[in-house]
Amino acid sequence: MVFNRTIKTPIHIAGVLALLLSFPSFGQRVLLDRVIALVDQDVVLQSELDLRIADIRGAAARENQPLPPEDELKSDILEALIIENIQLQMAEQVSIRFDDDMINRVLNSMAEGNNLTFEQYVEALETNNVYLQTRDQVRRQMMLQELQRGMVNRRITITDQEIDNFLNSDMGREVMSADYFVDHLLIPLSSGDSDSEKEAKLKFAADIIARTSEGENFLEVRANARLSNTFPVESTDFGWRKAEQLPNLFSSIVTEMESGDVEGPIEAGNGFHVIHLAGQRGGTEQMVNQTNIRHIMLSSNEIRNEDQTIAEINELRERIIAGEDFAVIARQNSDDASSVVAGGDLDWVNEGGMPPEFELVINELDENELSAPFLTATGWHIAEVLGRRETDLSIEYSRSQAEGTLRDRKFDLELQNWLIEIREEAFVELVE
Question: Running DSSP on this structure, what letter comes out for residue 245?
Answer without folding.
Answer: G
